Amino acid sequence: MVMAAKKGPGPGGGVSGGKAEAEAASEVWCRRVRELGGCSQAGNRHCFECAQRGVTYVDITVGSFVCTTCSGLLRGLNPPHRVKSISMTTFTEPEVVFLQSRGNEVCRKIWLGLFDARTSLVPDSRDPQKVKEFLQEKYEKKRWPGTFPRRLCQL
């Protein structure tokens, strides 16, 4: 007599196929985000906001890679940016696709298109107040806009 394997949770059953598949897909998306922040795009290795080496978060609102300090500052902006840890959270497929289409180099063209390093200075990452003021100029006042995709014109 052949018995069919039980697929659901409960006595004699294991993890449902749907849950296992979802967890496997989630791990794939997380791995892709880690790759984007590492070696696949050189511009993503440094924080988009302060240029500090070693990114640990992604700004889902604009699609950039940022450091821990700047992630907190971005959450404090008006409107707050949606920031997620690269290693401590899960990502959905649409989030990963968005990050793949953006990254720090594309964000630089969007948010710092008119930025002139000769007349304006990127703040020192060791001065959080200066970084916060820089972020307000960039995102709230849109001081140095480049080419904005229609979706971001609402920010």
Automatic annotation (TrEMBL):
Keywords: Metal-binding, Repeat, Zinc, Zinc-finger. GO terms for molecular function: GTPase activator activity; zinc ion binding. It comes from the Eukaryota. The keyword Lipid biosynthesis does not apply. One of its GO terms (cellular component) is membrane. PROSITE patterns: ARFGAP. Residues 27-144 form the Arf-GAP domain. The keyword Zinc-finger applies. One of its GO terms (biological process) is intermediate filament organization. This is AGFG2 isoform 4. It comes from Pongo abelii.
